[in-house]
Amino acid sequence: MTAELGLAALWLAAALALLQIAAATLGLRREGALGEQLRGAVRPVAVAQGLLTAIAFAALLAVFSGSDMSVALVAENSHTAKPWLYKVAGAWGNHEGSMLLWVTILGLAGGAVALLERRLHERTLVATLGAQAVIALGFYAFLLFSSNPFARLSPAPPDGLGLNPLLQDPGLAFHPPTLYIGYVGISVAFSFAVGALVTRDVGPAFARAMRLWVLGAWIFLTLGITAGSYWAYYELGWGGWWFWDPVENASLMPWLAATALLHSVTVVATRDGLRAWTIMLAVVAFSMSMLGTFLVRSGILTSVHAFAVDPERGTFILALLALYIGGALALFGARVGTVRAGATFEPLSREGGLVANNLLLSVILGIVLIGTLYPLLAAAMGTQLSVGPPFFNATAGPIALGLVALMGVGPLLRWRRDDKDALVSRTLPALGTTLLGMAGFFALGGVTRPLPLLGLGLALGLAVASIAPLWRRNLRRTPLFTYGMVVAHLGIAVSLFGMAADSVFTEEKLVAAQVGQPVLVGPFSVTLQGIRPEIGDNWSALEGVLRVQRGEGTPFLLRPQQRFFAAPPTTTNETAIRTEADGQLYTVLGRQGADGRWQLRLWWKPWVTCIWLGGALVALGGALSLLGRLRRERQVRVDPHPTERWT
Amino acid sequence: MKRWLLWVPLVGFAALLGVIAQGLLKPADRTVRSAMIGKPVPAFRLAAIAPGKPGLASDDLQGGQPRLLNIFASWCIPCIAEAPQLLRLKQLGVPIDAVAVRDTPDAVADFLRRNGDPYARIGSDRESAVQLALGSSGVPESFVVDGQGRIVLQHVGDIRADDVDAIAAAVRNAR
Amino acid sequence: MKRLLLLAAVLLSAPVLADSRLPPASFADTQLADPAKEAQAKELMATLRCLVCQGQSIADSDAEMAGDMRALVRRRIQGGERPDAIRRWLVERYGDYVTYDPPFGPATALLWIAPLLMLAAGVLLARQAFRKKPR
Fold first, then answer.
1. Which domain covers residue C40, as residue numbers?
2. I need a surface site. Which of A294, A330, A486, B132 has the fewest CB within 10 A?
């Protein structure tokens, strides 16, 4: 019964999306009372649609948590004996369920826009909700016609097949929802852009409404990438944390676009410049999140991060991508020329810095995009080739360092126009720190490779520069969003420091260890005490017991494992990691050698934790910014007809 | 701003879509093939691994007669599936040599006892060095080598029943 | 005793994969004595593609063949060979697929030039924002 209720809710939601599109389109064309009524209907319909998707998703959660094996999806992806958390997480640990989660977040976001957005011109809001309904309708069709999560199975099996053991990990259980919230937030920004194009209403009010959604989405995308990187780091067992793998790039590209959008939308909101560019970026950001979903699900590129793939689903997502983005870009080409040109400005100004920021971020995005897809292009031309870290590091690396240098200067620039000499004196402390830091790491730390040396110096300089906007300010009266910017930029500095430090200071020890004989790695002495068997729910393992001592400190044990799963037959390395204040000791148990000794892979990675700590700081900065912006929006008196000045 | 510039994104997107659609609808062959076709077999000398059977050296592949070089391993399951086809090829008069990858004498002897022995020589390649030198990326794989020791054909994966005629023909034509 | 039996059971059930039972090649997981040479080997290994994996370099793959390729790289570096020569040797056998550092050539010209082109186009586009007079 519950499953049928969910399916009915889904059909109803799809019908409402259709109604929403019709009401919005007709309402925008008709003048007079009828048009007004039609436009007035759009908001409540959007809210109802959001509620229905929530009901559908609740129904899915209910069948999963109650282990209703007569639902095919539950039987295929769950097991009666599974812990409750993973039963619930199983609801979105598969294609159909995750798509339903996608439309649920989309529906709720649409409802939230309809309920909360009071600043935007009514027609623009109606057009925005119409666009949102078009996006939702495509995904409803996808679910109902090719990926029904509520299909029944007869006869129902008693227990179910179970969730892939590798997915029974709290990190992975919450990774997809995080990314989806980010993607959906981007889709709302996209709808705002389309809405604004339809009504030619691109201005500060539109920018302020869109900024909140971009910020929200960006926070979740940041968290998603940070968590995904840490997961790859501890799961894959070779100490790497970023591989320029297609699936990783697929999550990086929307983030890059959203970061650029976040900065350009501020220019529209504050100075009413970069109008067309901001619209373009919103379209690009959404297309990157769709492309990311497509790349992950279609299996078109080989990736370490194996995922259930299906070309047919890929075709559907590709068709939606073509429809939405093609449509939006056609609208862009036809309409943007008639949107009034935005303000132009002085090169040496905050907005000038933000233009440079957008330029560099877009080029990095372009590099990642072309590097990721180039093997496909080459295959179409009949050559097999691989594009990997050497390409990305050589091309995107220097530009990223340039961007970091710019980050040190940008926030110190004044809006409208700045004075060169004054700017130099403001950036002097950061510049000095950078040079001193580089000299120090060169002379005392023995770092000679130029790129990491520059990275370390810039990280220190950027840390100083990020805090500089608070210098000589009344900290009490500084708005929260300024703190947000400071924290986010500081997070980048911290993360960059971690990356550069990892690349130069990491110590690696690969040894065939003899029981009882200590191995030295970094400041640690590691002794293999023995190998023990371990048995888990659905795996057996060999566990190395390592006794570790740092200098004269208290010894502790680390237990890296080699795990064997029976079905499907897989071997995984379970790394054992010790986190210290100044880095991590990363240990992996390898195979047994011919002489009976056990292979150990040991890494001492000074400051490596900074990489993810920095990511978390960036997300925290975003959250502070969002809070600050929300608070400011409340304080500003709402103008009943705010956008008339711009239309 | 120039008007035509506004349409550049759409054109770029269409190109992107084209590349992706091509990759999705006509997925390229992902088999990694050796780039050594048409080139001489690299010089190597491998010790014997099976009792009463000589090891294998690159010189053995230049005896004026085309041969089939089979890369196999006793621990490889498709190699078991391939064994009957190799025996048929031997019956058809194709001389077959082998490189046993990462293997031990006991395991190879056991494998030959169970699955038949079509090989004239077997060389032991303990660290896949010869496999790598040949540009082979897995087991089983087979190379047709002509009388002068030039590689003329690579067969990736196990030889199925309907591959036998083509491979026998390739060996005949390599004369 | 129970522990020991358990250990034996785990050990026996271990080779569930289609992997050989031989221990890893001598240099697969053993560093070179000379740190400078090991660093060279390490750098090269990170840019060579494991041929049997789903997009991993041989430096971070558990596959046996990746181990054998690491052994090959280390042995040749040990023997004084230049990393470039080893890469070329592998490309001669497996084509450009084996290197993550695509060599510049007709098929990859667009890939390597694109970043510069995009930067140039971006600068031209950005200049529009700075023009003094709106249209």
1. 25-103
2. A330
